[in-house]
Known about the structure:
Layout (H helix, E strand, L loop, with lengths): L19 H25 L7 H11 L2 H18 L11 H11 L2 H14 L4 E8 L2 E8 L11 E7 L6 H4 L3 H11 L3 H11 L29
Antiparallel strand pairs: 1-2, 1-3
Amino acid sequence: MYVLPELPYAHDALAPFVSADTLQTHHGKHHKTYVDKTNDLAAKAGLAGRPLEDVVREARRRGDAGLFNNAAQAWNHAFFWESMRPPGGPAPAGDLARRIEQGFGGQDGLKEAFVKEGVGHFASGWVWIVTGPEGLQVISTHDADDTLVREGVFPLLVCDLWEHAYYLDYKNDRKGFLERWFDNVANWDFAAAQLAAADGRGEGFRYPHPTGDASAASPSEAPRPTA
């Protein structure tokens, strides 16, 4: 059984940039619904107990859109919670800062690319900072699509572009949300750890193993280091 991960901070810890009301609704209702539906659909597909990363990839391979959409959304949201931290955290440093300088000319250039990609993405989806053979890049994916099913891409950070991520706080001002998110709550320590994993130093993010099944301990294929 897949669980709804606990938030790594209190509901009000990201205020005023992400309100407690938004987090309670987004995590406790939207994310929970994706997890509940994944549990139901994974069991029907004979995939219950498999690591969620495997379920996402297998659902895409089979063309099972319902399972893919819910499992990928469950994974994306868990990665999103880790991509944030309370305001006032450290800026990018070390290898991450050097890669940002190489790819974007500095933090301001990365922010410009990130906000432009997110604002320009039509309708729902996700805006990612990723690494791969060409270095750091900013990409977006549509609806539930994610980086687990993309070759040559390893995620460092993600921001949710679905309206439920920001509408209570920003109404239809996606640009304002992305700018304030990037400047104040983006978790650069998490991004640095993901970059290290992409370089073969440590493990990348994985969704919590399903509970109540012996196969939960089976190894999962983590996001593939490609940089």
